[in-house]
Design brief:
It is found in: Cell membrane; Membrane. By secondary structure, the protein is mostly helical. The protein has 13 helices and two strands. A two-stranded antiparallel ribbon has the order 1-2. α2 runs parallel beside α12 and α4 packs antiparallel against α11. The longest helix is centred in the middle third of the chain and has 34 residues.
Length: 319
């Protein structure tokens, strides 16, 4: 009985991995990670605060931007505690239930971010192709429904995938490849038939990310078609410039995502550093760069940040 209990405890415990071969430098490596998380959290919280407090930004475009900031934090924050526990040599252990919850948040918000980017592409399409009907089409009620639908569409399909993990025996190594849990990493350790999870996961990625990317592409085909009808070159540039931030956000999400998928599928025997590097880029780059891009490229957000900082400058000058 004691042996069975100890076996169950062992099977529910997994071990996270930091940066292989650089364990003695983990404390130093944690510094840039800490700065990146700090920049991401501050940047996204700043955008959320500006959109909430500035009545001029209570428009569809900025509501979708607030959704993007929430999904950015939802995708990156679940990894923060486990990452620093490993890098600061606190503990490499993570329990199975905690691992599943972490996977749920990472994968759900990853799919949600793609859905939000699709909604933002539709927002740009309506704004450029149907400007007079913009406010009547994208009402606050519709935007709320889109946000809820994006979250449910991303969360519900993930549940069966993760629920099946509870029935898998993990009788081999319990060492994961990253400092956080990913589904494709955990099923690699299962000593059971994981064909359903592999096929279901690939179908899920193809359907959700595939449909989103196709929708974004089609939206920009219509946007480009409408922009080319504008007679003045200045008008064309102004219309396309409103899409620049969104195009950057799409590339920031999809390029690392495609790179990580390629590495997991076709470079399984490559250096572990490549897998770890790509995974961290995928989870950390969007939350860090999206607020920076929208702060620089969007005049209203840039002005909102200046207004937010001006009282601080005034108080410092008085002191």
């Amino acid at each position: 009985m004691e042996t069975a209990n100890s076996s169950n405890i062992l099977s529910s415990t997994f071990y996270l991995t930091g940066i292989p071969g650089y364990e003695e430098f983990h404390h130093w490596i944690s510094i840039p990670f800490c700065l990146l998380y700090l920049v991401g959290i501050m940047g996204n919280c700043t955008i959320l605060h500006i959109v909430r407090t500035d009545p001029r930004l209570h428009e569809p475009m900025y509501y979708f931007l607030a959704m993007l900031s929430l999904t950015d934090m939802g995708m990156s924050l679940p990894t923060m505690i486990s990452l620093f526990r490993v890098l600061w040599s606190i503990s490499r252990e993570i329990q199975f239930n905690t691992c599943v919850v972490q996977m749920f948040f990472i994968h759900t918000f990853s799919f949600t971010e793609s859905s939000v980017l699709l909604a933002m592409a539709l927002d740009r399409y309506v704004a450029i192709c149907h400007p007079l009907r913009y406010a009547t089409i994208l009402t606050p009620t519709l935007i709320t429904k889109i946000g809820i639908a994006a979250l449910l569409r991303s969360a519900l399909p993930v549940i069966p995938l993760l629920a099946r993990l509870a029935f898998f025996p993990f009788c081999h190594s319990h060492t994961l490849s990253h400092s956080y849990c990913l589904h494709q990493d955990m099923i690699r350790l299962a000593c059971a038939d994981t064909k359903f999870n592999v096929i279901y996961g690939m179908v899920l990625i193809t359907l959700l990310w595939g449909m989103d990317s196709l929708g974004i592409f089609v939206s920009y085909v219509f946007i480009l078609h409408s922009v080319l009808k504008i007679s003045s070159q200045e008008g064309r540039f102004k219309a396309l410039n409103t899409c620049a931030s969104h195009i950057c956000a799409v590339l920031i999400l999809y390029v690392p995502m495609i790179g990580l998928s390629i590495v997991h599928r076709f470079a399984k025997h490559s250096s572990p550093l490549i897998h770890i590097f790509m995974a961290h880029i995928y989870l950390l780059v969007p939350p860090v760069l999206n607020p920076v891009i929208y702060s620089v490229k969007t005049k209203q957000i840039h002005q909102g940040i200046r207004n937010l900082l001006s009282p601080l400058k005034l108080s410092s000058s008085v002191m």
